[in-house]
# Entry
Amino acid sequence: MKKIISFLSVLCLLIILSCKDLVVTEPETNLNVQDFEAAWKRIQDVYPYLEFKKINWDSIYTIYRPRAEAAQGDEFYLVLRDLLAELKDGHVYYRTKGGGEVYPYYPQRHFKDRHAYSPFVIRKYFDKELRLTESNSVEYEILPGNIGYAFLSDFHKTYLIDEFPGVLEYLKNTRGLILDIRQKRGGDYQNIEAVVTRFLTEPLERNDAYTYGEKWVLPPFQPSGPFQYRNPVVVLINGSTFSAGEFTTEILKQLPHVTAVGDTTGGGSVGGGDESLYYLPSGKSIEIGFIDIRRYDGLPWEWLGVPPDIRVEQTEADILAGRDKQLEYAIEMLK
Amino acid sequence: MNKNHFYFFLAVLLLLFTGSLLGQDSLQHHAIFPEGITVEYGIGSYAVTDEYISTEKYSGSLPYYSITWANQHSNYVYHLKIDFGNSSEIKNNNVSSDIYQFTLNQGFSYALPKFTLFDNDTYLYLGPSTELFFYFNEQNIAVSGFDYAQSFALLISGGINSQLFYKLWNDFNIEGTFDFNILSFGFRMVDMEENDESPAKILTLISANNVVFTLGPRYYLLDNLSIKAAYLFHLTRIDSWEPLLSASDNVVFTLTYGF
# Structure
């Protein structure tokens, strides 16, 4: 019995000692206030739409600084989330120390339209399987009636620079073309240019852009590629079209043979690319764009979005019923 | 090869595979290794620092469930074990995380010669094991979109398992186990956007450890039915990417039914 008691005592001791706490310890430093100061100042210094959105960033400081001081440990993520959400900007996010991205805000039009599109419903309008580019960035095919269709899913890397010429080559003899950029988020300027310049028949002035208030001076867009697509084009957009998708739409809308059909885009026009990422003292980071890009009417499409030329509303109920009314409208236009 | 040679070689092969020599204590301790089905439930105190999320320590209670199949073969015991733990209450101050842990382990245990310790028979088993260990962490912070701070790790490992049985009385043992990985194929969430670090790597003892230690008494209610209460310590350390360090102290209750 003595042995058992001794043994049980050892077991109890192990549990009381809580070995886990000897192995996993608390961090030595807490940089929450420093992180807050750095984030607040970065936004004040570079974010271009504080005035446009009528945000008093100094008053934000007085509210959030005490919250940052009171935050213990990872409670600071809650402060950071709320601070960034004040910008109501779909481009803005924070990243955990390892790189996990968390967006505190999504445009409301995106929530409205996120289920108002389905690639499965799209397929019902084709009599053959859609083709897919090597990077899966574009799916395309010719609809009955010799109408070309291309869904642009990704404006990142050099996907469209590399693959859009092949897509357009396949679709070049169609009587009209549908460019579907619904459900499209961000991407790179070079890919936008690679698409829009294939539809130009003459140089096109660029829309205005500003970095820290200074206007960009760039030469006009020039037609590019072995041929220009001159037949009628319909660009399909909705509330989930965002950033690079909106940028592409806004440029293409300036062309006489292009019509934007669908619903107003999400509304995110701040840019900055890789330099938008800003590291806080603790190793967390925030994405804060600093380039103010404007529509051709001089307004940013931030919040405002890019409106369609012809509004065709579509809901999740339409998709559930197996119909894509926006696509049907585009097909009718091009017949 | 004539018939005599064939029978001679067959005899040698049989001797080699039986694994024990004449006059040696038997290496087959049929009664001591708890064969059959074992179910376990544990309540654990868990702590983790997952630097993919932050350097902060999260801790809380992580229940533990496990089922094991063990079967005595001629000179080894084969065992297959699945365990699972989940809690959404692993906290750092007022921020919580959902933690999931899952392990699938199979191993072979070979008996070493019996020895005496403090006047009692002691049996030691040792053998190789393979293991799949999965860890998932999702921070519970409400956001307006669809993105959450989350992290995962996966280890596919080869390692060593060992069991010690200290026979106090006929129906009462003290048992200890110590399992650890040696070489692993590891996967971890990485920052695909900002660097080119591979999400998959070969990991050695220096870069990854997955260690389980248990110690507790077993009491045989019947010949084929036993209960056990044990202390279980589980340590996971992965250093090759953003470091992950987790540890748990558990009290585990076990029921074993042998066929």
